[in-house]
Structures
1.
Amino acid sequence: MVTEWRNDTRLTQFLKRACLPLGMSIIATLCQFDRHVRAEVPPIGSPVVSSDLRPEVEKLINHLDAPQLAVREKAEKDLVAMGPRILPLLGPERQLSPEASLRLNRVRAALVEQMVTTETLPTRVTCKVNGVPLRTVISEVSQQTGNLLTVDPNLGERPVTWDCQDKTFWEAIEDLTKMLRLDCEAAESGGLMLVQREPVESRYADSAVNCGIFRVQLRELARIERGGSSLAAVTIDIKWEPRLQPAVIWLRSISIEGGGPGDSKPAQGTFVRREIPVSPRKCFVVLSIPLELPSGMSGQATILRGAFEPVLPVAMLDLAFDTRELRQSSRSIFLGQAEITAKLRQGPEAGYEMVLRVRYQEPFDAFASHRGWFYFWPVYLEVASKRLSPTRTELMSMSEDGVELLYRFGYSEDSNGRFICRVPVAIVRPVIEFQLPLPSGL
C-alpha cells in the first residue's frame, strides 16, 4: 500500500524533516555498535597468531637470505601462502640484507592486499541444524562471519530447523528471518538483533536488495501532491555487516524510474553527491529524500535506482612500538597504504604521552569529510604486566591524508613496555549500485 499525501502541511513537515538543500535530506539514524571496542566477536580478517606458526615463519624469513635463488623465491611464496594471520610476526625490527628486506616488504604488501580483498567481500554462512535453539544458531552465524549478531532474549530458546548452504551474510539473515517471521534491527548493546516482526512494520519487509556487504531496504513510501507536481517521499535503510565501519558514505545518485529491476537504462532523475554522515558507533543509516515522479508512468512497474560510495577503513592490524626505542627517537612502519609513526612526547616522570601519526596514500576523503571515526582506534600502553588505556585523547593535527593524535596515560613509573595501537592500513571506496523494486500504486 502506498500512502498519498495531499495536505501541504504534511508536505512541509516532511521537507522540514528532510532539511537539505534542493529538498534532499539525509537523516542518520544508526545502531550502537563499535567493532573496534567489542571483543566478543573479533573483526573478520584480524590476524590471530598461533604460537605454532612462529618457528615456521622464522625459518622462511631466514631462507629469504639463502644463497640459492630458488630457495629465496620459494620462501617468499610460502610466506605469502600462509596468509594475513602471520603479519604480526613480520615486524620491521629485523636485520636483513637489502634483498631479503625487499622480499619481506613484498610479502607484507601481498598479505595486506589479501586482507583488503577479503574484508570487502561479503562473508558467507553454512549452517544445518534441526531443532536447535535460535540463540545457538545466531552464535554460530556470528562466529562464522565476525558480525556481532544477537537475538531477543524472549526468542532465544525457540527451536530452529534450518539448512543454509554457503549463503552470504545478508542472504542467510534474510532466509532465517523470513522463515521465522522475524526482523533484523539495531541492538542497543551493539550490532544487530533478531526481534519479533510487528505487522505494522512488515509492510515493506520484502522490498530490499543485497549489495555485497551492504543491504538496502525500503522503509517508507508516500506520494505527495502539490499543485500540478507529484513527488514521492522515500525513506530507505542502508545497512552493512557490523564487522566493518564506514568513515562516511557519499550518495552519488538516486531516482525513481519506470520499468523493472532488470532494465539497463541509466537513471534519468536526481544526480547528486551528498554526504551521509556515519558515526563510529553505527551499523546502518536511514536516508529520507523527496524524489520527482516520472511522467506517464501510471500502471507501470517502478524502481528506485541509486548508487553510493562508502569510505571503508579496512585491514585493522595491531602494531606494537617498544618504549625503549621511542625514548631515543620516533619509529615508523610502512604497511599497506599507510605510514604509521609513534613518538614518545613525554616520559614517565610526568606520565606517559604518546603521539600517533597515520598517513594514507589513498585516503578517499576519509578525513576531509568526517572527523570522528579515528578516535575509536583501540590504543593502550602495555607496561609492568598492565594494559593501560589512555586517560585522555587529543587531536593534534589533521589533513586530507591522515591524522595525528596525542594519548595521555596516567602512569608515571619508570618501566619499559610497549605502545600498542590498532589501525586500518588501507582505505577503500567501492561504488555500490542498487535497484529496488517499489510497490505498485505510485
2.
Amino acid sequence: MQISKSQILDIIHQNLSAEHIEGSFIYWDSKIRIREEQIQIGPQTYQFEFDSILIFVDLAPFFNWAHPCLYLFLNIDNLEVETVDASFPPYSNHIPETYSILLKYGIEQLPLKESGD
C-alpha cells in the first residue's frame, strides 16, 4: 500500500498531542519495515509485529541523548498505529538517507521525498 505524505501528517495529528507536535522534530522513514524485522532503539531491541513505516518523534531535538522520544509504527495494511516510548533515536550519529523530516516544531518541512502524493 502506498502511503502519502498527507496521510502520514493526518496520522501524526490523530496520534500525538498538539504539545508533542509543536515541541518536537518528527521524521518519517521511507523504508518499509517487514514483519519480524528488528531494530535497535538504544539498549532495547524492537521487533515489528506487522509490515510498517516508522515515524520518529524527537521530543527534545537539541538535547543530548538519553531523553524522551516516541516511535509511531504505522501498519501499512490497516493504518493502525502502535506508539512506543523510548529514550534513544533509531540511529547513532547520522540521520539515515531514508529519513525525511516532516515537521519541526509543528511546521511542515519541504522538500520531502513523496511516496504517493
3.
Amino acid sequence: MTSSTRTFESNRLVASDGLVQTVHGSWLTLAQSVRWLSFWAAIALPLLSLSALYLGESGLFLVLLGVQLLALRVGHDYTNTDQ
C-alpha cells in the first residue's frame, strides 16, 4: 500500500465520521421535534375531542381520542432544553 493510498483511506474515514455525526445530529433534532409536536398535540387535542363530542360526531371523537393517546405516548419524554 502506498502513502497516497493510505492518505486517501484516512481522508475517507474522517469524511465518513463527519457524515455519521451529521446524520446522528439530524436524527436527534428530528426526534426532539416529533416529541415537541406530540407533547403539544396531546395538550390541544382534548379541546377538539370535546367539540366533536358536543357536535355528536362520535366517530371523529374516537379517532381524536386514539390520536391523543398516541401523542401522549410519543410526547411523554419531551423536555424543554431551552432553559
4.
Amino acid sequence: MGVLPTHGESTEPWMGIHPRITKIRRSERQMKKDLMDILACPVCKGTLQLAVTKEDDREIIEGTLTCEACIETYPIEDTIPNLLPPALRD
C-alpha cells in the first residue's frame, strides 16, 4: 500500500523533477509545441520529432511524435499525446 501525502505534499509524481514540468502539468493539459522542450521517447529517451496534421492557434489537435533514435511513433489525438510504450497501448 502507498503512503498518503501529508498536507502540502503533491500527489503528482512528476512534481519537483524538473521546474518546467510542474508549471506545464498544472496549466497545460493539451499538446502544445512548448512541451517539445521537455518530452523524450519513453522507450529509449531519444529526441522526438513532431509532425502536425491538425492544429489551431493554441494547440496541436492531431499529429505524431517520432523518436529519432528508435523510430517508434506516438500518436497525438484530440490534443492528447499517447506516450505509452507500444507494448502498453490498446
